[in-house]
Amino acid sequence: MLKPILLCTLFACTAHIYAQAPVVIQGALDIETDHMVSQLKDVKMKKLGGWQFWEGTYQGYPIVVSRTLMGMTDAAAATALAIEHYHPAAIINQGTAGGHDPKLNVFDIVLGKESENIGAFITPNQPKGAGSNSLTWKKSFNVLPQNATPEEESRHVRFKADPVLLNTALKLKNNYTQGRVVEGVIGSADVWNNEIDRINYFHQNYQTSVEEMETASAAQVAMLYKVPFIGIRVLSNNLTNNGAYNPNTGNACQDFSLNVAKHYLADQK
């Protein structure tokens, strides 16, 4: 264990001096963060630029709740700030999402074994007047081209969950009683898809379970920093099977994510 004087040096920029590095749990909106903040003890709020962070403990374990705000840019920026400021043991990006898989129901939780930017495309060549059809956009754009070989330049770039975080979450799935907990692919983009054909396109070609607007961008930043990461998303609605929106899903996902963070940190001691 690190000596107190070294911990003070490592975490002097934070309001708390933690006995171990915290887990940062992200949520875009108040309905995805407020419940977690209410569960923390000795809470101190810090604002970095336009982003808010709440430092505290959950059942004795250090947690930082990060409200990333909505969208890929905000999530990426908030992730970089969290890593530079808190040097976290891990990052969990969680919140609500829309369903892509008709087998999944509202309140089911998807553990993102992989996440992918589903808004990065190279559109096909079309002459003037030929129109545009997103269902013909077969070539996804590699957002990390420096990592691609020529034969891979059009491949889908996916960010894998940290295996320890994923296994921790899987061990806790039977504790969740409001729905099922499954592994899946989280699709992220600055797009809100309401077209069933477009949703089905992603589910069939990308095997997406859900879509939202933050996980893949946060995962990309965490990967570049080599910080363990996982996305955890609850279905708040599912257009593919008429699953109506339920705002209470946000609290359910926050509780599950706090439990994952606690057990992950307990295993790190």
For the residues shown, what is the average pLDDT? 91
Topology as H/E string? HEHEEEHEEEEEHEHEHEH
| Distance N to C terminus | 9 Å
Radius of gyration: 19 Å
Structural class per helix/strand content?
Answer: alpha/beta
Please list the strands of the largest sheet in the order they lie side by side: 5-11-10-6-12
Helix content: 25-40%
**In percent, how much strand structure appears in the residues?**
25-35%
Number of strands: 12
Major beta sheet, specifics? 5 strands, mixed, barrel
Low-confidence runs: 1-15, 150-154
Helix count equals 7
Q: What overall geometry do the principal axes of the alpha carbons give?
A: globular
Q: What does the model show?
A:
The chain is an alpha/beta fold. It is 29% helix and 28% strand. The protein has 7 helices and 12 strands. Strands 5-11-10-6-12 form a 5-stranded mixed beta barrel, surrounded by 4 helices. Strands 7-8 form a two-stranded antiparallel sheet. The radius of gyration is 19 Å and the shape is globular. The termini are close together.
Protein topology:
Elements: H1 4-10, E1 23-27, H2 34-39, E2 41-48, E3 51-58, E4 61-67, H3 72-86, E5 90-99, E6 109-117, E7 121-122, E8 139-140, E9 158-160, H4 163-171, E10 181-188, H5 196-206, E11 208-212, H6 215-225, E12 229-237, H7 249-268
Parallel strand pairs: 1-4, 1-5, 5-12, 6-10, 10-11
Antiparallel strand pairs: 2-3, 3-4, 5-11, 6-9, 6-12, 7-8
